[in-house]
Amino acid sequence: MSDRIEINEVSPRDGLQMEKAFVPTENKIAYIDALSECGFACIEVTSYTSPKAIPTLADADAVMAGIRRVPGVRYTALVPNLRGMERAVAGRPDEINLVMSVSETHNRANLRMTREQSVAGLQEVLREADKIGLPCNVSLSTAFGCPFDGEIDPAEVLRLAKALADSGAAGITACDTTGMAHPAQVKQVSEMLQKDLAIPVTIHLHNTRGMGLANALAAYETGIRRFDAASGGLGGCPYAPGASGNVSTEELAHMFASMGVDTGVDVEKLLGVVRTLSGLVGRNVTSQLAEAGTRLRRYAPPAWLAEKFPQA
Amino acid sequence: MSDRIEINEVSPRDGLQMEKAFVPTENKIAYIDALSECGFACIEVTSYTSPKAIPTLADADAVMAGIRRVPGVRYTALVPNLRGMERAVAGRPDEINLVMSVSETHNRANLRMTREQSVAGLQEVLREADKIGLPCNVSLSTAFGCPFDGEIDPAEVLRLAKALADSGAAGITACDTTGMAHPAQVKQVSEMLQKDLAIPVTIHLHNTRGMGLANALAAYETGIRRFDAASGGLGGCPYAPGASGNVSTEELAHMFASMGVDTGVDVEKLLGVVRTLSGLVGRNVTSQLAEAGTRLRRYAPPAWLAEKFPQA
């Protein structure tokens, strides 16, 4: 099993869409360009949803056109439907990310469609994308629990994942949308998906209840090598008030790097970018790791030590 | 391997000693009495260190005398030396907790002794405690890294643990004093200690860099069944400014309970106690879990759903 993981940095999309203030297009571009220098395998740049639905990402076309692409980084964008895909194509994404929920109520609340309608709509996008050779990942929201419907049957995650894989998805992401996952469940779902799918599986975690990194570890131990994460832990879910954001990229990369796993990410460089987040979004973004520093940060011993232990 | 873990709630000692304000004795007692109702295996009540060194715990005698003891809960107290033990005996602890650091510089800074002096001093306490049948746990600070000396050789942790076990320690706690541990290291040290010690091993974690629960999971997977934790994630280390506190008991208990592990702890009852912490310590204590609620917390779907999907 490879000791290399791929991190998909989702803060420009999954983080900024939840911010109240519109981040000016040129600042978004500068932010994404800074992320591009950090060594990510993939960056989710924006979303081609209706500007009415998500006004903070209304500048998707300009952002995709404006970023400086670093070789080796896959640039992806969220696409809700066929119309979104048609818009996205002009931005030349390396892949697109489709989305639906595993739970019926969350799918209706978030996408205003039944799951049946969503599957049909995504299959349509998959068909059209295939014609132009555009790879599509599918993100399955609420795969580990739904704030409306509660516990989710892993068999339902697998059923939808297989249906979409059979329809041509290039990858499946199981999303813990509101931070309900626990390690034993992540292990079960990760093993199930990897066993039955021939395409890469990504795990998307939130840290709502402190279990983000424990869940990442549990997934890693089953062989999962792709993770979504958002710098500064940005993000959240409008349907679970108080739910905090995505697992923080810097903490995820730092943990795996500490364990000797190659993440591709330059953690110190990333921490530099994380420290710009408060300025970017216009509110105080706290990052535990940015405050504490990486694990081997050293402090000077108290000055009196040299006097008390002169022989040292 | 048993699916039951024991949680040692250390906030009354390891948490309150770091608070700036002195918590009135009767409030400490009420807090510990409330914790006693939550189902902990063990509560570290106070510290018999010099009132000059730790003025916030100067009321150790009164606190130990004042708490209401619940059968099944072990009440322990930190003891720095023989004089501390003599004081502690009057408080009738079920066990005492001795402490020294694995790293030389932290031991000197924190205890004003060399490690050699500490070992000799603890051996003296162990001998005297043995005479009166008082069990002694020994906590080894900086077992996973030192803010002054950096990386710690696991062989050093093992060497000190064995020396103290051979001298009569009833248990050893490996402490990640400033949150430097990572899961692969926790696995290594946990396996090493359990293999070579015939007494129970406890893991004491901090969440400074977000890895607290991931480390707990890694320890659990090696067979560790005892954990220190502090409600509300209270605590910290005076020598690593900015370092946040202990792994939060409510998040630790919630994770293991979600996984089907019996922790003995009533998480909802504990969250009720956690919500009193800000009042207790006179500053804002944030608890992610207290804010988000346990994982299966349900929200009402948006009202417009019923109109849009009348057939539902």
TrEMBL record, chains A, B:
CDD domains recorded: DRE_TIM_HMGL
Recorded coiled-coil stretches: none
Keyword flag Cell inner membrane: no
Entry keywords, A to Z: Lyase, Metal-binding
Alphabetical list of Pfam families matching this protein: HMGL-like
Name of the protein in its database record: Hydroxymethylglutaryl-CoA lyase
GO molecular function: hydroxymethylglutaryl-CoA lyase activity; metal ion binding
Domain (Pyruvate carboxyltransferase): residue spans on this chain: 5-271
Any Gene Ontology biological process: L-leucine catabolic process
InterPro entries: Aldolase_TIM (IPR013785), HMGL (IPR043594), PYR_CT (IPR000891)
Matches recorded under PANTHER family: HYDROXYMETHYLGLUTARYL-COA LYASE
Superkingdom in the source lineage: Bacteria
Cell division found in the keyword field: no
Protein family per UniProt: Belongs to the HMG-CoA lyase family.
